[in-house]
Each structure stands twice: as structure tokens, then as C-alpha cells.
Write a structure and sequence with these properties.
mainly alpha; Four Helix Bundle (Hemerythrin (Met), subunit A); 4 helices; about 85% helix; about 0% strand; elongated
């Protein structure tokens, strides 16, 4: 049961960040400032889904993998602090800042600087989380292990 909760929470977190990232990129490239402001407000509201999902995934992952020593488990354990720090120190403050700035119609240099930082940090978290999902599936035998070239 705990592994299912972990997997579901991890996928929800991944899909939230993917949705935030693609919505941001699309709105910035193809829509009006009003739409960008709406997207930023919705991303901030979406944190009420993302943060618990990430906490559940992290906590259940630490509990599940406490005694695991496989290379995939070790790699996942090394990635999680980076994902968490990136989320709490860069992505969450950026979401708050960007929602505030866009809501005020302040699409200035600071807004776009933080926007670029947020997109880069989001891409990093998506990559690391994707690797964690892949390694979790390998650990469960749901996808094949990487074969060594001979």
C-alpha cells in the first residue's frame, strides 16, 4: 500500500510541475499578459496540490527506501534533497513573486529574470523526478534494467 501511495504522490507531483512548466511556456509565448497573470495565479493555487504530493512522495520514499542499498535506491535518495531544495528555495518563492508581479501588471526585467530562473529550476526538477520515476519502475521490475554494451 505504501509503495502505491508513494508512486501516486510522485506522479501527481511530476504532473503538477509539468503542467505548471508547459502552461507557463505556452502562455508566455502565445498569449496576452492577462492570460499569463491568470496562469501564474493558478500555479500558485496549484501549490496546494503539489506541496502535499511532494511531501507524501518524499516521506513515503524515505520510509520505503530506508534499508535499500541498490544503485537505483541510492540515486533516488541523492536526488530527493536537490528536488526538495529546488522546490522550496527557488520554485515556491518564484511562483509567489511571479503571481504577485503579473497580478499587478508588472512585466518588467525582474519578472522575466525570475521567470527564466523558474523555468530552468522546473526543468531540473522534472528531469530529476523523471529519473526517480524511471528508477522506481526499474526497482519494481516494471521496466527492464539498462543493458550494458558488450
Amino acid at each position: 500500500m505504501k509503495s502505491k501511495v508513494h508512486a501516486i504522490a510522485g506522479v501527481i507531483g511530476f504532473l503538477c510541475i509539468l503542467t505548471f512548466w508547459t502552461s507557463t511556456a505556452y502562455s508566455e509565448l502565445f498569449t496576452s499578459h492577462e492570460t499569463v497573470a491568470w496562469v501564474k495565479a493558478m500555479i500558485l493555487k496549484g501549490m496546494f496540490i503539489l506541496i502535499p504530493a511532494m511531501a507524501i512522495a518524499g516521506g513515503s520514499g524515505m520510509s520505503l527506501g530506508a534499508k535499500w542499498r541498490s544503485p537505483q535506491a541510492v540515486a533516488k535518495k541523492k536526488r530527493m534533497p536537490i528536488i526538495a531544495a529546488n522546490g522550496l528555495c527557488i520554485l515556491l518563492p518564484s511562483a509567489i513573486f511571479l503571481a504577485y508581479k503579473s497580478g499587478a501588471g508588472a512585466f518588467d526585467t525582474w519578472f522575466y529574470t525570475v521567470q527564466v530562473i523558474e523555468l530552468c529550476a522546473g526543468a531540473l526538477n522534472l528531469t530529476l523526478m523523471g529519473l526517480n520515476i524511471r528508477d522506481g519502475l526499474r526497482m519494481k521490475g516494471r521496466i527492464g534494467r539498462k543493458k550494458k554494451a558488450s
